[in-house]
Amino acid sequence: MAGKANTQKPAVHENGAAQSNDAKSNDLERNRVKPQGEALRTNQGVKIADNQNTLRAGPRGPSLLEDFIMREKITHFDHERIPERIVHARGSAAHGVFKVYESMREYTKAAFLQDPATETPVYVRFSTVQGPRGSADTVRDVRGFATKFYTQEGNFDLVGNNMPVFFIQDAIKFPDFVHAVKPEAPNEMPTGGSAHDTFWDFVSLVPESAHMVLWTMSDRAIPRSFRTMEGFGVHTFRFVNAEGKARFVKFHWRPVLGSYSLLWDEAQKLAGKDPDFHRRDLWEAIERGDYPEYELGVQIVEEADEHKFDFDLLDPTKLIPEELVPLKIIGKMTLNRNPDNFFAETEQAAFHPGHIVPGIDFTNDPLLQGRLFSYTDTQISRLGGPNFHEIPINRPVCASVNNQRDAMHRQAIHVGQASYEPNSLNDGWPKETDPAAEDGGFDSYQERVESTKIRVRSDSFADHFSQAALFYNSMSQPEKDHIAAAYLFELGKVTKPEIRARQVNEILANFDAGLAAKVAEGLGLPAPKQGTARLVGPKASPALSLLNRVKPGIKTRKIALLAAPGSDAAAIKQLQEALKGEGATPMLIAPTLAGIDDLAPDATIAGLPSVMFDAVIVVGGEKGAKALAQSGDARHFVLEAFKHLKAIAALGAGRDLLTAAQLPAQSDGVATGEDSQSADVLKAFINAAGQHRVWSRAAQAESVPA
Ligand code: HDE
């Protein structure tokens, strides 16, 4: 029996009831422990006199069990680790805010999407999927893009990926898929990658994976930065407005700086040179004040149009081409604060696609339906019980009072006799809230469902290849080349010839004969027969090519100024200023940390090699240039930058380094000039760097060793 509905504003309690926009900050502030001025104490509050020596029987005698200080410290240490996430174990996160550009009232009653003046705190965690917590950032993998919106009506988690589709159509296949992609059981190899037998065995037997595997073989799987990576909610959700009208919705995140990827050679090298490459990039950008920004876009489909497509909106292996349903940009998220403590915030953050608020609802996507079970379940073992919502990073900014009680690690101290409802002992509180009221209670969208209980995949999920063809056809030539190279790399690492052949003949040949033939040739296989799959729908969607996602300018690009003692310090200062003026991050890199006149290099060439930069300028000045030309590291630096299609400038005597590295005399994206302070060279360089890569140099770069 339901109690009397509460039409008042939700009850407010002391733990997390703040209603202001910095509610989350304040909430976290209450839990911040600052050691300044504090005495060292035990967990029971006893001041510690000696933190260096165990209590022992005599200076050379055995340690005593009695030492409660040592025992407490070591016991706590012994339990410092919690289970890492089964998937998405490797990640980093940041705080920020979200604001809608204009009211979305027409489409949804979600409070945080009503008013451009409302600033909603967010916490966003980016991740890889396959590797453990300590694995490298730049592996070929899907990236998680999980956002927790701390709205005034409770938490809304948009737990998405950087690709708009998924490998499987039904949640029951998820453990199989994850077992296949994770390091193999006998030897726990490989770490962080999918280039191994079990992954390709599984996906070659599961044609529904064709589309997503193609995405993971594309440049999307090796992003340049979390800051320049798109995000997608993947599933079709629902928006529901105050009148109860529902529409289908797909969520997208679009980075304001545009989207860019690494090259595979770069990604592999970075995995060794800086396994924290993405983590560091995000952290440093926020510390610098270059706050990452992402626009939220939605594709909205009227209920009446549900069956208008060549695919099923409930099928998570399909995207809605933007040319069919344009993206409506509705707001912006800005990440503006790094966490204080990785474990307390990022590791303990518990995302869940089932965390939704009034105005947003689910669909029957069978993958989403399974996720709705999985995410709470996994937190119970990862975070040690069902009270993980009380961990500061997970707490909503509004009240969360109910009659749930007890369980491991309970923080709230519930006051009063009644922990049930209805009750009279507490005047019936806490009470339900009428959905029709202002700040109404959550009311599930009423969808008519009447059918046979059945274990079956809908026929409307049967087309596995049309959208793979759509994606491949939408790629530019360099992107197509990268895809072929990625299949070759990965399948080349598969030890069982029959698995390689199956992927080529049963999967690739069904969506693109040219790609299949190219990969077959590389693998030494006979050219496959044309696939039998019938391909339907649009042939291409230009919005899918990353080359169409380049935004002009060099804002936040990392640019190496290569110099040595004797380089032209005045020119360096002028370059630093000019590049900073464009919003870029110039860094002075030299063979050693010895000063260049009054300038201190930021790092050595060996410490920050070319793969850590977007572009490079070799500074002028006879003596410095001579030292660079004689340095193997410096020659390698420019060779690699050339090979990785980065913009290069060489000023004055700095040109000698290009000659010493035996780079071609003329090349696209290489600006040179006699003068060590040339405005024209700088302009040409900035133009080239703004393109991110000099694709027209690709053929020339192929012959350059690096
Ligand atoms: Fe997840 N997924 N997933 N997933 N997922 C987890 O939850 C799961 C799926 C995604 O930064 C786990 O807290 C199932 C799709 C992200 O903390 C786990 C299925 C998409 C993150 C889990 C899927 C995702 C996770 C592991 C198929 C994109 C990291 C730890 C039915 C839309 C969130 C955890 C973070 C994490 C289960 C499929 C995205 C085990 C059963 C599709 C971004 O609960």
TrEMBL record:
Keywords: Heme, Hydrogen peroxide, Iron, Metal-binding, Oxidoreductase, Peroxidase. It comes from Paraburkholderia youngii. Residues 41-55 have a biased composition (Polar residues). It comes from the Bacteria. Belongs to the catalase family. HPII subfamily. Decomposes hydrogen peroxide into water and oxygen; serves to protect cells from the toxic effects of hydrogen peroxide. Residues 41-429 form the Catalase core domain. The gene is katE. Its cofactor is heme. Its EC number is 1.11.1.6. This is Catalase. It is an enzyme of class 1 (oxidoreductase). Residues 1-60, 420-442 are annotated as: Disordered. It catalyses: 2 H2O2 = O2 + 2 H2O.
